[in-house]
Design brief:
39% of the residues lie in helices and 31% in strands. The chain is an alpha+beta fold. It is globular, with a radius of gyration of 12 Å.
Length: 71
């Protein structure tokens, strides 16, 4: 299962009783997007990709790595 957003949603719900918050912006002068993941107000990780969906998936994957769910 490579839907990292879904895995992260379930992990954070079960572990912290909250859901991840994604804040995504288009980077200036590039066809790239940066998505940051937060737990409530706490910044955790980010991902940069060429679509919003890919940036959010990468950010979710990086967050799962951060928490030791993936390696």
């Amino acid at each position: 299962d490579n839907n990292f957003k879904d895995i992260l949603q379930r992990y954070m719900n079960n572990t912290f009783e909250t859901k991840p918050i994604y804040k995504t912006i288009k980077l200036d002068d590039e066809n790239m997007y940066k998505s940051k993941v937060y737990k409530e107000e706490e910044y955790i990780t980010e991902g940069i990709e060429n679509t919003i969906k890919k940036a959010e998936q990468l950010a979710a994957k990086n967050t799962l790595i951060h928490y030791g769910v993936l390696n």
